[in-house]
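Sharing a chain and its predicted structure for anyone who wants a worked example. Both blocks are below, sequence first, tokens second.
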Amino acid sequence: MVGMAVLWFSTFAKIRYTGPALAWSLAIALASSLTLAPVLVYWLRGVVFWPFAQRGAPPEHDLEPINLEPPPPTGFWANVASLVVGHPIAILTLCLLVMARWRSSAPAAGPTSASSPTSPRTNPASWGREPSSATSSSVS
């Protein structure tokens, strides 16, 4: 909250007024979650935890007990997860090698000559001129 409030000292107007507004909204959300939420949970008791039985609550007239245990994971993603958990260093090394290879084959970042603002193709002021005259007039 303090970090957002410090944005008041910014020179950019949008940030100057947005920062304190966010700080105030976070303060209000914190205050309501620490004061209002526990009261609502106390008042609503069983309704809040509706699909599940509360611990220590008297059993209702259910003929069949509710099983809250999740079923054991199966399928492709369960196998992937057990592989990653079983061999974390090998998987990390493999992922880093793949990313390094992918990074080395990626084109260099940055503007190309076609997307440059001084390029004859993207600068309307230089349309109809020779490329050499367009670059020399836009540089000066």
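Comments welcome. The longest helix spans residues 13-44.
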